[in-house]
Design goal:
The chain is an all-alpha fold and 142 residues long. The chain has a domain of 87 residues. The protein contains 5 helices and no strands.
Amino acid sequence: MIYDEAFFEIEDQIDSLVMAIKASETCRTYQKAKTIMRQDPVVQELMRSFLEKKLDFERIEAYGEYAPDFKEKKRALRTAKRQLDLNEQVSEYRWSETQLQRLLDELTVAISTCFSPSVKVDAGSPFFQSKSSCGGNCHARG
């Protein structure tokens, strides 16, 4: 790769874009939700409990129904996961994370379509709305 003045200009523009994203309300909301979630002792206990139950279940998972307490451990894992998912700080974090991902997906599509509308972009989310009529990686255009 040849490093010329154009390369350094692009690099500067990328740095500016990154700074603009970090300064955006979407990113600030995400960072705030992440900090609140990580500092919440209730969330930490829910995460610890979930990981403990996940490890317990993974130890016997390969044996399936033949393992002692298989159903109980599976149920305990699902209960712990549900408690974690329903926590207000966790749900706010996940919502803000989805919003940030949507912003990044939109920017990626906007940049790629400047070069060609047929460039494939992995949006990272099956729910991302693309400019393609099918929403997938096929070459059908709407």
